Amino acid sequence: MKTKTFHQTHLPAIEHLRQELEALESLIQVSADSVKLCAAPELSAAANVLQMAADRAFEASEHAKKLEQTLLAELDQEDEA
Q: Which residues contact 13 (CB under 8 A, 6 or more apart)?
Protein backbone atom coordinates (compact mmCIF):
# COMPACT_ATOMS: atom_id res chain seq x y z
CA MET A 1 0.00 0.00 0.00
CA LYS A 2 2.86 2.40 0.78
CA THR A 3 4.40 1.85 -2.65
CA LYS A 4 1.10 2.58 -4.38
CA THR A 5 0.68 5.80 -2.41
CA PHE A 6 4.22 6.82 -3.35
CA HIS A 7 3.56 6.16 -7.04
CA GLN A 8 0.22 7.94 -7.03
CA THR A 9 1.78 10.94 -5.32
CA HIS A 10 4.67 11.25 -7.76
CA LEU A 11 2.95 10.28 -10.99
CA PRO A 12 1.45 13.75 -11.64
CA ALA A 13 4.86 15.35 -11.08
CA ILE A 14 6.51 12.95 -13.51
CA GLU A 15 3.76 13.52 -16.07
CA HIS A 16 4.23 17.29 -15.71
CA LEU A 17 8.02 16.91 -16.05
CA ARG A 18 7.58 14.89 -19.25
CA GLN A 19 5.19 17.46 -20.70
CA GLU A 20 7.54 20.33 -19.87
CA LEU A 21 10.52 18.52 -21.39
CA GLU A 22 8.54 17.84 -24.55
CA ALA A 23 7.53 21.51 -24.74
CA LEU A 24 11.14 22.63 -24.23
CA GLU A 25 12.32 20.25 -26.93
CA SER A 26 9.77 21.68 -29.35
CA LEU A 27 10.71 25.29 -28.57
CA ILE A 28 14.42 24.63 -28.88
CA GLN A 29 13.92 22.67 -32.11
CA VAL A 30 11.92 25.53 -33.64
CA SER A 31 14.69 27.94 -32.61
CA ALA A 32 17.36 25.70 -34.13
CA ASP A 33 15.40 25.33 -37.35
CA SER A 34 14.88 29.10 -37.56
CA VAL A 35 18.58 29.79 -37.13
CA LYS A 36 19.40 27.17 -39.80
CA LEU A 37 16.98 28.83 -42.21
CA CYS A 38 18.94 32.07 -41.96
CA ALA A 39 21.78 30.23 -43.70
CA ALA A 40 24.30 32.63 -42.20
CA PRO A 41 27.66 30.92 -41.65
CA GLU A 42 28.28 32.97 -38.50
CA LEU A 43 25.14 31.43 -36.97
CA SER A 44 26.11 27.81 -37.61
CA ALA A 45 27.67 27.42 -34.16
CA ALA A 46 24.49 28.75 -32.53
CA ALA A 47 22.41 26.37 -34.64
CA ASN A 48 24.59 23.45 -33.53
CA VAL A 49 24.27 24.38 -29.87
CA LEU A 50 20.51 24.72 -30.18
CA GLN A 51 20.31 21.36 -31.95
CA MET A 52 22.33 19.70 -29.18
CA ALA A 53 20.00 21.22 -26.58
CA ALA A 54 16.95 20.01 -28.50
CA ASP A 55 18.42 16.51 -28.74
CA ARG A 56 19.15 16.41 -25.01
CA ALA A 57 15.65 17.64 -24.15
CA PHE A 58 14.21 14.94 -26.42
CA GLU A 59 16.30 12.25 -24.69
CA ALA A 60 15.26 13.53 -21.27
CA SER A 61 11.58 13.52 -22.25
CA GLU A 62 11.94 9.93 -23.47
CA HIS A 63 13.41 8.91 -20.09
CA ALA A 64 10.58 10.71 -18.30
CA LYS A 65 8.06 8.95 -20.54
CA LYS A 66 9.58 5.54 -19.71
CA LEU A 67 9.49 6.35 -15.99
CA GLU A 68 5.87 7.44 -16.26
CA GLN A 69 4.96 4.22 -18.10
CA THR A 70 6.81 2.11 -15.53
CA LEU A 71 4.95 3.74 -12.65
CA LEU A 72 1.62 3.32 -14.42
CA ALA A 73 2.38 -0.37 -15.02
CA GLU A 74 3.31 -0.85 -11.36
CA LEU A 75 0.09 0.85 -10.27
CA ASP A 76 -1.89 -1.43 -12.58
CA GLN A 77 -0.14 -4.50 -11.12
CA GLU A 78 -0.88 -3.34 -7.58
CA ASP A 79 -4.53 -2.77 -8.52
CA GLU A 80 -4.74 -6.33 -9.85
CA ALA A 81 -3.19 -7.78 -6.67
A: none
pLDDT at residue 44, rounded to an integer? 92
Task: For the chain, give the longest Cα–Cα distance.
Answer: 61
Environment class of 2 (CB within 10 Å of its CB; exposed 0-12, middle 13-18, buried 19+) = exposed
CA–centroid distance for 45 within its chain: 24
| pLDDT of the residue at 43 | 92
Positions in the chain short of pLDDT 50: 1
